[in-house]
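Following up on my earlier message about zinc ion. Here are the inputs again, as you asked, copied directly from the submission form:
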Amino acid sequence: MLSRAVRVRWRAAVPLLLACCLSCTGGGSGEGVPTPLRGAPAGAPGVGDPLFPQAGNGGYDVTHYGLGLSYDPASGRLTGTATVTATATTDLGRFDLDLAGLTVGRVTVDGRPATTARSGTELVVRPAARLTRGARFVTTVAYAGVPELLTDPDGSHEGWFRTDDGAVALGEPVGAMTWFPANNHPSDKAAYDITVSVPDGLNAVSNGELAGRTGSAGRTVFHWRTTEPMATYLATVAIGHFRITRSRTPAGLPLYVAVDPHSDDPRSAAALRHIPEILDWESGLFGRYPFASGGAIVAHLPSGQGGYALETQTRPVFPGDSGPPAVDTTTLVHELSHQWFGDSATPRSWPDIWLNEGFATYTEWLWQEHEGGSSVARSAADAFADPATWAFPPADPTPATLFDPPVYQRGALVLYELRRTLGATAFATLLRTWPAAHRYGNVSTADFTAFCGRLTTKDLTPLFATWLYGRTKPARL
Ligand code: ARG
Ligand code: ZN
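Thanks, got it. Here's what our run produced:
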């Protein structure tokens, strides 16, 4: 979640850095030019996202990422091998992975050396033998370098953040490609095994469950496993000194909370102690928690670089730079609600992000009312009165306005209006059945409006026309 001040600050747009063309070739060694690239059936260089045309790739569907990472905090150098297991959805003579920066070494497909080329953020892979539609294939990519930090069109940063003693990876919307080659679009979710080798004395925390921890020759290797499908933008690694707290919610869910000692202020600690209570409260509203574990990572980013929390799967990251307390309870409620809305039920494409942020904002409103603070009606009235809410319809952001108030506040107002029209009972059913029906899947705005339509005999067309699609501010709330 973003503070309002941060959102406004980001409105100073910077040029879109991610655009690239297939005619330009990226830098870095370890590149071979596929011979010939023409003629072979090719996977598309993007999945056709309206906002990020180069994000993701066509022709295959990843089922598992095995990332073997080794990090040297002193130099900032990351060395990795990505083992990507996928199914071809068409015959493929070549296909792309997304990768920004870094140097690619040996690449194999099904154990045989493949030729590669770089083109902007596309890593083009030409296997020795053509892949046939339906075939499961395994690509390995060896890579190394000092990962870059991306500056997004809204002026915010994402990707691989170097910290004073390690690093933190944040990938929404496209920063995952700064630290591993991927089908970097939320429509292709996969399971992960992430191992991270770090110098002894440091910790490496990631998504899912800690499956192993081994040491040798002055280094410790942490093995993190995510078995439920995860979008690339929700993958994280945090390396550094962390105080680790393991506990369980009253319902028995294992929690793993990692706090950088620099960010260990009493108010953050007090907020983090609410995790079990918040998860139980949210489970009561949204149904069973979707993952095998939970927790949080409180990092310590160089000041001015972070500025936002991110709902990384099972373990949201809170930035904790030198500013105010790293974690506040409202932000915690927001990021934890994303575990249902965004992480388990994931946007099909980036214009659907209001289905994440609208629900997460509405959950903040519910929590404040639950805690005896502002009523939901008061929060809705405040959002309605804010001119920034009305800049564009919620499902119509640009890359520069992905995290702006229309996505968050106006998204929440769509839900507020739905509650009024559906009534409390049907709305409570919506909050529970929407994430359950799409658990571990992808959701679009059209899926949502159709789903709502099935919960009522009323015609919801005017509601959506006004609150979801309308270009002007409605006369009244
Ligand atoms: N999804 C995050 C939240 O609201 C915000 C991420 C902001 N990302 C960015 N690159 N500015 O919980
Ligand atoms: Zn959010």
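One observation from looking it over: The pocket of arginine (ligand 1) is lined by residues 1-2, 152, 156, 158, 172, 308-311, 334-335, 357, 403 (CB under 6 Å). Hope that helps, and feel free to reply on this thread.
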